[in-house]
Amino acid sequence: MTIKQTYFYHPTSYETNECVIASFEQRNIPMQRIQQSLGRKKRFILDRNSTETTLTMATKAAKGALKECGLHIEDIDVIALVSATPELLVPSASIKLHQMLNAKKKTMCFDLNANCIGAFIALDQLTKYLQCTPNMQRALIVCAENLCRIVDNNNPITAFCFSDSAFAFILDKDGESIGLKDVMYHTDSDIADTVSYPPAGFSQFKNEDVLVWDRSFDGMGSVDFIKKELLLFLERNKMSVEDIDLFMFSQFSYKNVQLIKEYFNLGDDKVPFYSHELGYTGSSSPFLALDQYQRRVRKIKQGEQILFWTLGAGYEAGLMLWEY
Predict the structure, then answer these.
(1) Has residue 35 got a pLDDT over 80?
(2) Over 90: is that where the pLDDT of 265 sits?
(3) Most CB contacts within 10 A, which of 96, 131, 185, 275?
(4) Which pLDDT value is given to residue 244?
(5) Diameter of the chain by CA atoms?
(6) Mind telling me which residue stretches traverse the membrane in this protein (predicted)?
């Protein structure tokens, strides 16, 4: 099983954080510590007047991935659209994506919303599905978010956190690469109310609703999870930290990534971080790190060991061991 191709699409419009920081500091809200913690300089945003949507972005990302690896949409057996901000609920956004790509009728389509751990779960589940389904060969997983549309611009964390974008990757049952070796999940629903949208649920939805983000939620629970479980996770696979070639972590918080690096004594060259210039893209973020690393640094070789770690609001975290 191999991640055959990745492709990142983003709108042309963007925002730097200087003006956001200045507006908060004029209200005596210190922002430098938050900025240093999250690690953001620039974010891509969909203009309010733009005709672009999560669905059009998803289509462009999917077409880009197919084109770069020389496949056609007829080669795809499964389409999964991962989003917390889908353009449609009925029909599912993946059905509309199927239509826009002119995909074959013998295609399984589904949407998945697990917030920022969504792509991680989609990769886990579809790897296992392809492995046990003889007549299914390839899956197209597309992440698309327009989170800037629902954020609270008066919240210093969400005001400059997210990037609107789409990210596609193709999963191929190639018969050569091992792919998924192991996965571990950790869910703590005691803090499920710290991040929410709509705040009171769809039954009480208002047009002016924005994403509620309690500033106490900083992802540290997921940092504690990896500190506690990583060595045991690797040990059950007869591996050590030194056996991992690359660590593809959630790009949500620069501070959290640094804490993990320091705890396990990981080198900068093994833990790429790209949210400074790309912003935080939600569920795609650890896989976007994989994409950017291969485009900017080097191609990953067959047999290299990759460790994914990420988290989603609520919260849920995961570790994944993947052999390229």
Answers:
(1) no
(2) yes
(3) 275
(4) 98
(5) 61
(6) none
The residue type of 267 is: G
CA distance 44 to 299: 26
Count Cβ atoms below 10 Å from residue 200 Cβ, excluding itself: 11
Same domain (yes/no): 158, 234: no
Residues 12 and 146 in one domain: yes
CATH number, domain with residue 288: 3.40.47.10
- List the domain range (segments joined by +) for residue 281: 177-321
Residues 17 and 89 grouped into a single domain: yes
- Contacts (Cβ under 8 Å, ≥6 apart) of 290: 3, 6, 246, 248, 300, 306
Mind listing the pLDDT tens digit for each residue in 214-226? 978 888 999 999 9
Residues comprising the chain, all counted: 324
Q: Before 286, cis peptide (omega within 30)?
A: no
Q: What is the mean pLDDT of residues 77-83?
A: 98
- The total number of structural domains in the chain stands at 2
Instruction: Identify the domain boundary among 119, 152, 170.
Output: 170
The yes-or-no verdict on residue 177 having pLDDT over 90 is no
Residue 34, pLDDT above cutoff 80? no
Specify whether the CB–CB gap between 136 and 130 falls below 8 A. yes
Q: Tell me the whole-structure pTM to 2 decimals.
A: 0.95
What does the alpha-carbon distance between residue 247 and residue 45 come to, in Å, rounded to a whole number?
A: 28
The band of 158, judged by pLDDT with boundaries at 50, 70 and 90, is confident
Cα pseudo-dihedral 111, 113, 117, 118, rounded to 10: 0
Write out pLDDT tens, residues 191-237. 999 999 999 999 999 999 999 999 788 889 999 999 999 999 999 99
Residue 320 parent element (H or E): strand 316-323
pLDDT at residue 96 greater than cutoff 90? yes
Same domain, 142 and 254: no
